[in-house]
Amino acid sequence: MKITSKLLLSTTAFMLAGAIPAAAAWQPQKPIEFVATAGPGGGTDNLARAVQSIVTKYKLTDQPIVVVNKGGGSGAEGYVYGKASAGDPYKVIFGTSNAWQQPLVSKVAFNYTDLTPIAAMAQDEFLLWVKQDAPYKTAGDFLKAAAATEFKMGGAQSKDTDEVLTRMIEKAARVKFTYIPFKSGAEAAVQLAGGHIDAHVNNPSESLGQWRGSTQRPLCAFSPKRLPQGPKVTATEGWSDVPTCVEQGLAISQYEQPRTVWLPGKVSPEQAAFYVDLMKKVQATPEWKDYIEKTSQVDTFLTGATLDSFIKQDLEHVKQVAGEQGWLLK
Amino acid sequence: MENLQSLLHGFTIAVTVPHLTLMVIGVLLGILVGVLPGLGAPNGVSLLLPLTFGMQPVSAIILLSSMYWGALFGGSVTSILFNIPGEPSSVATTFDGYPMARDGRPTTALATAFGSAAFGALVGVILITFLASWVAQVALAFGPPEYFAVYFLAFASFVGMGGAAPIKTVVALAIGFAIAAIGIDTVSGSVRLNMGIDELVKGVSFVVAVMGLFGIGELLIAVEEEFQARAVSSRVDWKEVFRALGRLPRHSIALLRSAAIGCWMGITPGGPTAASFMSYGIAKRFSRNGARFGSGEAEGIIAPETADHAAGTSALLPMLSLGIPGSATAAVMMGGLMIWGLNPGPMLFVDQKDFVWGLIASMYVGNIVAVALVLLTVPVFAALMRIPFAVIAPLIVIICVVGAYSVSNSYLDVVLMLGFGVVGYLFKKLHYPLAPLVLAIVIGDKAEDAFRQAMLMSKGSLGIFFANRLVTTLVLAGIALLLLPLVLQIVRLLRKPDEAAHEKVRII
């Protein structure tokens, strides 16, 4: 079934190829592959599929789009694939900040400089979560208790965003956590609901169901201002009711995970420009707004120099934490 | 009885013409992806997902879950006919299903598999219907030490129950653990055992391993043993389908035991793979025909199939009520739920009654539709066995190569798959069991993660495995199974003089 449809697609692609005038800016001439650097069902996969459905719905390109998952090795599989496809403008890689964070701490065979950055399209926020029946009302209470006994903090993966944030909290509040890495934030959320760990720093969408189901609640958000007001999550509270961590005396004013889009290296500026433009068009649709709201992310669009400086800044920051923890590769 | 009322309400949603049509379409597509190499349920459901965005959530989930049932049934077809398991959970079905099919009884093998699978699924759904809230609580009790204890129990049941010499089982397990360790390590975040090959960072896919071990390995053996055309003369016999189903009640103890193991492993997040392996191992030990397992014994098909489907079905409950997907397919469906604007979690049962109970009702109806459709296809699939070996052998090679390549469009996987073929051949030749190797490849890294997470929590003390009743019971049961062969041997030694005397009498 797959093979026939691919054949059909390429035949259509072949016929269309003759029809498009060569004088216009670069246009794709064959099917495009969206590579999600995560397994099916995760946040990165959802983004790739959301963009795919919007592009298809509004016919933003004539070419068909196929989403493939290459989530092995915490996403390294997808980035290595992108590196190996240098010069191929028909592979679009969807990832997170681990594109530049992972090469710092693990011996993976890629670096973000092997890829062409297109855009950062959405930012996932982080919150500090505890079990529903935990005695702490504020982040201050929690940290006071954490100073007395060593708490177990869960998170997705090791030496990745969740652990970096955990170590930042340790430093800011002068406490010590035992960090326990799980495969995903969803797994950490279930472990918290079962009382096997004391806290985690999940993104809103990873723990939304549990908050609504009264098994865990957020203490504070690692954001400079309160999260945008959406529909109420529980009967009485919504995201905008969660205080910022700074309000509660935990001095980490901003920590976000950007969802990033890349092309392989060595593509032409015209090819990169086509995809920047494509993502901009996607972002202007009501379906995109809907996706952002449903996944409780923050809409953002960084590209070009702003994206470069964002990456550099984040990289410096992670390098510092990783250096202090002794994670950096020698 | 509130649940029963909700269920009846659910039936009014599920049993409507559009939804029944969706079920038939879903099941047929599912059988197709289950039978086609390298597709499988998770891929099939991902491909279908974008089509559901415009649908009502309940219609969408009915379509996707029907596809899942179809794919589960379809996956057993290739396990039985070609010794190529499509999903990790149908590996155990090959042990007796394939020999039975080779023996000229493909119709019996398929019908037995489908019948017992349907029974397992039914028990799973009934469990969900009546114990939804209780079951959700059980899953919450599972932290890292409990997870490890469940995996330990699955491994131990193989050492204690497997047919091969325990030491060979341990060797096979150890090799499996080493293969499972390839790639990024969750706990330390570092790359392990990639032997300088950048692509190995993704780890070794289960599909690649089993296609080689079973598909190619078996082929090499077959080629060596008899290089002549080896067609199985199977009659296409409708009556045999019903006869095989009629024989199922004779194995009611095996059915019930396997369903119980399946449900238990589905709720406690051991999953369908561990369930089918454990059920097979235990059936082998306790069945009267235990010695004949591996040569085409009906109970050897019933045990893994019933447990697999009971676990696969009951594993949807933790996904809905807690947001823990029990399998790759469940993970894709969970992604779907989010896109449809639903959030899995305890509140789903309160806020989205129509969705939840519509889905549960559709599980009853969908499984009936699925089993009816697959039974209809039995004679067609069984006829495939009449194709001469000289034709089918190259086809199997093509299936395996395409299947391995399509996992992540990589030639490395094809090479690995062929390498596993050689390993499979050597294992067979040297009488090492393949099942523990596969089990370790599939759940080895999960077991390792759980163990190390537990060690982090306890700061290195093994006491955490005896910290509460649940985990203590699991660990002790595992140790007991592990020691079983040793104890049996001692008992035999003690009774030997006596037995030897008997033997003598008989010989005379």
Please specify the SSE layout and strand pairing:
The complex is a heterodimer of chains A (330) and B (508).
Chain A: H1 2-19, E1 32-36, H2 43-57, E2 65-69, H3 76-84, E3 91-95, H4 98-105, E4 115-125, E5 127-131, H5 139-148, E6 151-156, H6 161-173, E7 177-182, H7 185-193, E8 199-200, H8 204-212, E9 216-221, E10 256-264, H9 269-283, H10 286-294, E11 298-302, H11 304-325
Parallel strand pairs in A: 1-2, 1-3, 6-7, 6-8
Antiparallel strand pairs in A: 3-10, 4-10, 4-11, 5-8, 5-9
Chain B: H1 2-14, H2 17-35, H3 40-48, H4 57-82, H5 91-102, H6 106-140, H7 144-161, H8 166-180, E1 183-184, E2 191-192, H9 206-225, H10 238-247, H11 252-267, H12 271-286, H13 298-314, H14 316-322, H15 328-339, H16 348-351, H17 353-383, H18 389-408, H19 411-429, H20 435-458, H21 469-507
Antiparallel strand pairs in B: 1-2
Q: Can you describe what's shown?
A:
The complex is a heterodimer of chains A (330) and B (508). In chain A, 42% of the residues lie in helices and 20% in strands. Chain A is α/β, with parallel strands linked by helices. Chain A folds into 2 domains: 30-123 and 257-325, Bordetella uptake gene, domain 1 (D-Maltodextrin-Binding Protein, domain 2, 3-Layer(aba) Sandwich), CATH 3.40.190.150; 127-254, D-Maltodextrin-Binding Protein, domain 2, CATH 3.40.190. Chain A is globular, with a radius of gyration of 21 Å. By secondary structure, chain B is mainly α. Chain B has one domain (2-507). Helix content of chain B is 75%, strand content 1%. The longest helix of chain B has 39 residues, at 469-507. The chains are: A alpha/beta (330), B mainly alpha (508). The interface between A and B is large, with 61 and 58 residues. Chain B: Residues 20-439 form the DUF112 domain. Chain B: The chain crosses the membrane at residues 20-40, 109-136, 148-165, 170-191, 203-223, 322-343, 355-376, 383-405, 462-488. Chain B: This is Tricarboxylate transporter. Chain B: Pfam families: TctA.
